[in-house]
Amino acid sequence: MFPTNQKIYPQNNTFNLSPVIAEPSWSLYVMIDVERIKRGNDSTIGDPPVELELTRLNSFSLTAPLKIIVQPDGEGWLAETIDYPLYCYDETYTGAIEGLKLEIEDVYYDLMKDNDFSPSWLEIKNQLKTLLRVGE
User: Fold this and answer.
1) CA distances, 134 to each of 52, 58, 66, 94 (Å)
2) What pLDDT score does 22 carry?
3) What's the pTM?
4) How far is CA 49 from the centre of its chain?
């Protein structure tokens, strides 16, 4: 049995992180101290990186899960995509993930303005056009 101040969250699986923590479907588990998160101090030096799959952003649904890694970094958390050079740093675990979701949307909107980008960013643009679905 687990202590009452801890809750099990999955590692390497699907999360819908809006609005706060997660609604997981899981197979592998990571224990996160829920009391620490409630206090707003969910930064833990030495915690291993966690791989997650986003199934939607704030304004978009996704045609396939988007893999990200969330890891402690100094006094905060770093969330970054595996397939794209996008990341977000925040003082909290959930803040880093939510910030990364906003960053992905901002980059998508910027890329859709025109085609004046390097070949690598044009490839990312094409991939995001396929991956993101507005308002679904």
Assistant:
1) 22, 10, 15, 23
2) 41
3) 0.67
4) 12
* 68 contacts 80 by C-beta, under 8 angstroms: yes
Tokens for 136?
């679904």
> Residue 17 corresponds to which amino acid?
L
**pLDDT digit string, tens, across residues 55-106:** 999 999 999 999 999 999 888 999 999 999 999 999 999 999 999 999 999 9
**What would the 3-class secondary structure string for the chain be?**
CCCCCEEEEEECEEECCCCCCCCCECCEEEEEEHHHHHCCCCCCCCCCCEEEEEEECCCEEEEEEEEEEEEEECCEEEEEECCCCCEEEECCHHHHHHHHHHHHHHHHHHHHCCCCCCHHHHHHHHHHHHHEEECC
